[in-house]
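Why this split exists: single-chain examples teach little about how molecules sit against one another. For that reason, every record in the complexes split bundles all components of an assembly together and asks for one structure covering all of them. Below is a record exactly as it appears in the raw files.
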Amino acid sequence: MFCGKENTGTVCGQCVIGEIALFSYLDNGSLRKLRSLAAGAYFPSGRTIVEQGQEQEHVFVITRGLVKLYRLTADGQRQITGFLGAGDLLGSIKRNAQAYCTAEAMTDVEACSIQRANFTNFLQDQPRVCFNLLVAATDEIEARYDHSILLARKHANGRLAAFLLLMALRWRSLEDAPVVIHVPMPRSDIADHLGLTTETVSRVLSQFKNRGIIEFQGPKTIVLRSIAALYDLAGLEELPRPRMAMGL
Amino acid sequence: MFCGKENTGTVCGQCVIGEIALFSYLDNGSLRKLRSLAAGAYFPSGRTIVEQGQEQEHVFVITRGLVKLYRLTADGQRQITGFLGAGDLLGSIKRNAQAYCTAEAMTDVEACSIQRANFTNFLQDQPRVCFNLLVAATDEIEARYDHSILLARKHANGRLAAFLLLMALRWRSLEDAPVVIHVPMPRSDIADHLGLTTETVSRVLSQFKNRGIIEFQGPKTIVLRSIAALYDLAGLEELPRPRMAMGL
DNA sequence: CGGGATGTTGAGGCAAGTCAATCTAAGTGG
DNA sequence: CCACTTAGATTGACTTGCCTCAACATCCCG
């Protein structure tokens, strides 16, 4: 799966790093160089990948699994800032190397790891990669704005409707209903992400169920019966297109 | 003040574009090239600089005045996403040129304007500028995260305490109390920015006044009597260092 | 010195938080 | 394989902080 140092000599035909949009147009020489910098990494479910405030030694491209990002505030509250999946970038370029938030593997996670310094140098050598990463960062800023608007302006049911739609869209395309989505995180994580409490999340989801908008197949598998109703509740016309997410 | 095409021949000793952190280390040749791309721009108070959804022709470096950024949601609500001042960048590099939000001059505004295409080309030619802009974008992402946490986790008084501290710190250093800050935007803008209503903003500020934390000199000039109390209310230990803000 | 825009204060309602009790799911060991 | 355990999820009763609606005050500018 990986084509880094630790796997030198293995078949690289299925290495994913070249398929990441960020690197997809690199010529063979540059791609080979990038691969020479990369190493495979594995984190079992529950393992902390980077910890808030610690120096980040590596940048990761997630290739499999799900990562939860959260930040602890000075007064001891936890805010889940986002979730990363395959294709997303964890640990970007920053002024200081201290991680802004903690990243924790929610499932078993595989990733491509690159030394920070090497990645920084690679960016300086490859202006197009740097430029594309800048575009990705701008996308991330827009996504953060959208989330702020969600928190500032939507009620609990709107936030959850938007969340379900994003979960449905994030790692697959949204075909016609019914769409079955898997929600791997516990209710408390959803609540933390949306600025609600677990009880409210539970109540709103039950309300959606009673209104026939969604249907449960166990607490973590949800069938979206009416996409239109969810759009309406979320007050959305269109969802952001799929993109590479960046965790700091 | 400006050194762009429209001002060719004027004294350039006081041109600010070279003083922006983003460009500060450019050699003379590159800086001259950048200046040749820049033109002065002026927007009277109340003028819309860029409008949400419209193609952005230019990128601006604000050199004087205050700009308010807001986005209208599909269901007709308004969210003020931020405020820009001198040294900040308006209209970054994006996948599509459509503006994410509207930018409106709150005061008379002077800016350095650069054609988007020219700026993009300049970035490709100047990897270090591109890299530094990427770092600035990452700072912006962190600032957006902080604002999300504010909206998700803080009550009205915490949000306003944090807002007052940010206003105090943003364009000047925060010396020992009492600090006199100028809050040029109306209460409705503050409310929109913090996900509150004007009434709540007013009530909380009155509460601060009654508790002796702040003092009014007219509704737009506020004396911060107790910085410590504000930090405590905001649940903060430290504020983000001053940075170049980016509006999309 | 008016009069509209902006800001403040008050009364009442409601959405979501809090506290607490149950219910369910998914392991765990006998 | 099933009883037991435990974390997670749901539901209910009550409380509260903010919003809504409304009246009043103040600022600002012609």
